[in-house]
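Archive maintenance. Older records in this collection stored only the sequence; we are now back-filling the structure field for every entry so that each record is complete. The fields below show one back-filled record exactly as it appears after the update. Entries are processed alphabetically, and DUF4870 domain-containing protein is next in the queue.

ARCHIVE ENTRY
Title: DUF4870 domain-containing protein
Organism field: Garicola koreensis
Length field: 103
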Amino acid sequence: MSIAVHIGGLLTSFIVPLVLWLIYKDRSPYLNEHAKAALNWQILLLPGYVVAWIIMAIPIIGFLGGLLQLAVFVINAIFCILSAVAASNRQPARYPVDLNIVK
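Back-filled structure field:
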């Protein structure tokens, strides 16, 4: 299930990590830690996506928003996959920044 938290974050942003964290936070300390890490990472990336969408709405520089969104997605994909692999090996998640928004 901890692998699903990270891959779900890649596919649905914060929705899958949030739902799985709410369901399993009291049942499994291991899954709780992975879900919190994935949820914190997805919340951290959300402003990047919002800024990209706003820039894409501006006709002259909209392509820059597309490039920003692509960059955020690629970074997200890399770290979600690395964290899913770490979870499969029963290791802690490997996100570069953990702001501890969800504690």
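Update note: The mean pLDDT is 92. Helices lie at 2-12, 15-24, 29-56, 62-88.
Entry marked complete.
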